[in-house]
Amino acid sequence: MEFKKRVWAFFLLCAILFAVCAFTPYGALRPQAAPPERPVLLPGGTPFGIKFFTRGVIVVGVTDIESYDGIASPAKDAGIRSGDVITAVNGMQVNTAEELAEAVNAGKGADTVFTVLRGDVSFSVTVRPKRSVSDNLYRAGLWVRDSTAGIGTVTYVDARTKRFGGLGHGVCDPDTGRPLPLLKGAVTGVTVTGVVKGRRSEPGELVGEFSSKTAGTLEKNTECGVFGIFDDISAFAAAPMEICYGGEMKTGRAYILTTVIGSVPRMYEIRIVRIYNDGGDTKNFLLEVTDKELLEKTGGIVQGMSGSPVIQDGRLCGAVTHVMISDPARGYGIFIENMLKAETQN
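Structure (tokenized):
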């Protein structure tokens, strides 16, 4: 009898094990992969100066010239327009206004092939420069620029590599709104000396002095920010923070780390008003400045604060990007994960 009981117990145990295996998902029986390590970064909030040189020259306007054959506009006749980037003349690369002028004049009025970048499309046009009455030089009738400079705010620094991200948006052409093609760039320290307070329909701005010493290099200019590497990161004294993914962010209280006087950032309270699931890569959430001291000093968000880190529940969530012209207390922000993705993309 005892033997039969043991046999029945054995078969019952086998039946239970079979049932467990039959109704348990296969994946649950396998060892589960460890979740990816959450990045840890130094929050920025420090102002920095940008010195930016373009790859090619940016057309800011086409104009008539008084030539010996009468009034002419060679560039306009060839179809060149504002916002185009001229990258080469007769196959020779040009990156400065001086190089462009020399290349045009060297042809002495002969047909000259311009390589033009418009958006993502590169094409060639033939221009026939005319000799200007004013200086006897051959000209195409172009206004161009090859560099720009400005103030922004550092969003984060990777303590291991000294790499940084800032602005939360690109350095863009004012006519097309597209990021300018970067040839080379440098970053410098900035001391904020004053603020032009923002008002409705009148965006304010930070006023600052550039350091004469280069602090690092600028390597990428994208829709989601500018990226590069610092020579020294000892000035970033804030404690490292884990990042917050966009899906973890919530409406309500948060903070921005920014500098509105001097060069040392401070924390100011804001409110996350809305989170957008369809905001693309850059306009991911709407924020409102609620800190009375910051509102008194700046009126809210001003130019130069772009890139200021947004912090919620002790995690780095993103950065301030744009102010709302109709209400300077409000503005948009970008998720930190979108900036990190843009930094690593080719």
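DSSP finds six helices and 22 strands in the chain. Residues 40-52+147-344 form a domain with the Thrombin, subunit H fold (CATH 2.40.10.120).
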